[in-house]
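@here heads up, posting the sequence + SMILES for the adenosine-5'-diphosphate run so it's all in one place. Ping me if the SMILES looks off, I pulled it from an old spreadsheet.
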Amino acid sequence: MKKIGILYGQENTFPQAFIDRVNQKIAAEGIKDMMAEAVLIDTVEQAKSDEYAVIIDRISQDVPFYRAYLKNAAITGTAVINNPFWWSADEKFFNNALAEKVGVPVPKTFILPSSLRPPDTDENSFRNMKFPFNWDKMFDTVGFPAYMKPHDGGGWKSVYRVESPEDLWEKHGETEHLVMMLQEEIDFKEYFRCYVLGTDNVHIMQYEPRNPHHLRYVLDGDPVDQKILDTVHDYCIRLNKALGYDFNTVEFAVKDGIPYAIDFCNPAPDADINSVGEENFEWIVENAATMAIEKAKQYKKGQMNLTWGSFVTDQIAPAKKAIKKAPAKKTVAKKVAVKKAPAKKAATKK
Ligand SMILES: Nc1ncnc2c1ncn2[C@@H]1O[C@H](COP(=O)(O)OP(=O)(O)O)[C@@H](O)[C@H]1O
Ligand SMILES: [Mg+2]
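bot reply: prediction finished. Complex structure tokens:
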């Protein structure tokens, strides 16, 4: 039996709709050996977690235990959507750098050391930093007003619009241990939020982040230039290919006809019918169900079934040819006593 599981937190509308849709589609297609359900976790033992062919992860960003569970499931072959290893590694600042490498415009961005020192560090932990910081260089590049937001955040938490250096320093002082990005403001005309499933399925939604929460997904917005939509579509695909996410939302702010990617590190995207609206909800339920069934069909027991982005598989940077092969060296610390290999007869049982 190929099981498709969904792991979720406080959300109430998407998970059950997804499970029902997958099971309906399986029945309609006459597939006998497949089913969808809510993931149920009991004991979790290393290297023993192959119950699910596919797991859609909607919550491990908030629950480290779940992230560890998912990595363990992945090594036994579960196709975890999204790849929990990549999700553990990337964050917004790195993703912005990757966007530049794959030709997607992003606002100019710097990263700032946290306002408070991380626990168990003192001034000696920062001897590699040049103080005072070259703030002028950053301010000249980014300009004001600017955005300051966590390099690894979501849900609009600790997102600030800052008017001046003094404003920035004051707000930075409130951010405690967060590592913040200082980012150029894109004074946008249009804004889009796009579901991106894999590398060929994009659903572009008009979005107005300046509206109150329940009115952000725009249902009857002004017509949009087809060229902009085509560019947005192309950029979505480029980003998801590079990142290797199966299920993401990508946000763009459009200024002077150029879409700038603002937020594309959303691998558990909002899919609540009460915020995205009925039509978008129907799209994501239907298309996520189709994708999960496809993944379950492709699933190969005992093998790695995760998706990896081209940053990992093709080594986007540095270029392959720049990597020189160093001659192999093998050293063991002098203090380590090396045990002689046991005699052959002890090693092979007959
Ligand atoms: N560089 C920027 N220029 C203009 N608006 C921005 C910029 N960065 C963030 N915003 C606004 O702030 C909102 C939240 O920022 P975002 O990067 O999406 O963080 P989160 O991951 O918390 O949603 C965005 O939807 C957008 O409206
Ligand atoms: Mg966002």
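MO: The chain is about 30% helix and 20% strand.
MO: One more: The domain at 108-184 is CATH 3.30.1490.20 (Dna Ligase; domain 1).
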